[in-house]
Write a structure and sequence with these properties.
Layout: E1 3-7, E2 10-13, E3 18-25, E4 33-39, E5 46-52, E6 57-59, E7 67-74, E8 77-84, E9 93-100, H1 103-108, E10 113-114, E11 118-123
Length: 124
């Protein structure tokens, strides 16, 4: 059974930083991709960043240079992190960690495992 437990959301002023954490267990695909989506009220869910099993990363243009995705594996668990710097009010959203069995599946079909979401609020 896949478990994805998120933490680290909160409220911050523009220009500040937050670090989101997602502890993933039970996701046994060896060539996985994992990452973060976000959704603001009235908007579609948006891909933010993705990292592959081999460490390759990709970011949506609006967060390049400000956000950094990373991962660490230990005892069968994968800890996914999103360091968010220079936050802007438009970064306000619910952030979801997600996983797919491969980058192809991530890109074409989307993730098949999701966290419960964590709220990030950035005030001006």
């Amino acid at each position: 059974q896949v478990q994805m437990e998120e933490s680290g959301g909160g409220s911050v002023q523009a220009g500040g930083s937050l670090r989101l954490i997602c502890v993933v267990s039970g996701y046994t695909y060896s060539r996985y991709s994992m990452g973060w989506y976000r959704q603001s009220p009235g908007k579609e869910r948006e891909e933010v960043a993705v990292i592959d099993h081999d460490g390759s990363t990709a970011y949506t243009d609006s967060v390049k240079g400000r956000f950094t995705i990373s991962q660490a594996q230990d005892r069968g668990k994968n800890t996914l992190s999103l360091q968010m710097n220079a936050l802007k009010p438009e970064d306000t959203a619910v952030y979801y960690c997600a996983a797919a069995a491969s980058r192809w599946l991530w890109n074409v079909r989307g993730p098949n495992a999701w966290g419960q979401g964590t709220q990030v609020n950035v005030s001006s």
